[in-house]
Amino acid sequence: LYSYFGTENPNALNCKASTQKILFNVGSRNNITIQNIRFEGANQTAIAGSTLSNLWIDSIEINNCTQGMGFYRLSNANIRYFSVSNCLQNAVYVRSITSPYTNVNIEHFDISNIGLMPGMGSKNQDCDYVGVYAVVYSGLNIRYGRVNECGIDCVKFGGTTNLDVSYNELSGACNVAEDH
């Protein structure tokens, strides 16, 4: 492998490569708190979990991942005061569409530069190139956030009842797919 660096001195540059698929795997554990930590460079997902409840994520930063956070069958969760940047697929993914998965709060966030490289959305689903993708059976709040520069949508959401998506600042969508 050869690289051309132009006039730059290669010894003055940093090269980073991830060797981990998932940086923090919550699995199906309950009553978990993740706070005051920075995640950098996951091959797939920085924080992942499936079939869990009572999750509290507070004051974290995620950078350079395929997916920032990914949760299936999540209930009673507070994901707050976080930032996610430079992800290939999406920043926050929550799919909890059936009962009893309810009450997910995603609040006070700053998301930027998500899904800007065509062909890098790995799921080939409607969550590719999206800042926040959340579908919760009942009780979803996406509030007080800022999403800037996404490949397709800044926020996609769904559910049956008690949905509140408000007080968000969204800009720079449809950078990859102009027909949405």
Characterization of the model:
The chain has 180 residues and is an all-beta fold. The protein has strands at residues 22-27, 32-40, 45-96, 102-114, 130-143, 146-150, 155-166, 169-171. Strands 1, 2, 3, 4, 5, 6, 7 and 8 form an eight-stranded parallel sheet that branches.
Instruction: Give Rg in angstroms.
Output: 17 Å
How would you spell out the order of helices and strands?
Answer: EEEEEEEE
What overall form do the CA principal axes indicate?
globular
Q: Would you report the number of β strands?
A: 8
Task: Characterize the biggest β-sheet.
Answer: 8 strands, parallel
Q: What quaternary form is this?
A: single chain
Structural class from helices and strands? Answer: mainly beta
Beta content = over 45%
Question: Terminal Cα separation, in Å?
Answer: 39 Å
Low-confidence stretches: none
Report the mean per-residue pLDDT as an integer: 91
Number of helices: 0
Helix content: under 10%
TL;DR?
This protein has 180 residues and is mainly beta. The chain is built from no helices and eight strands.
List keywords for this structure.
single chain; 180 residues; mainly beta; 0% helix; 63% strand
Summarize the SSE layout with pairings.
Layout: E1 22-27, E2 32-40, E3 45-96, E4 102-114, E5 130-143, E6 146-150, E7 155-166, E8 169-171
Parallel strand pairs: 1-3, 2-3, 3-4, 3-5, 4-5, 4-6, 5-7, 6-8
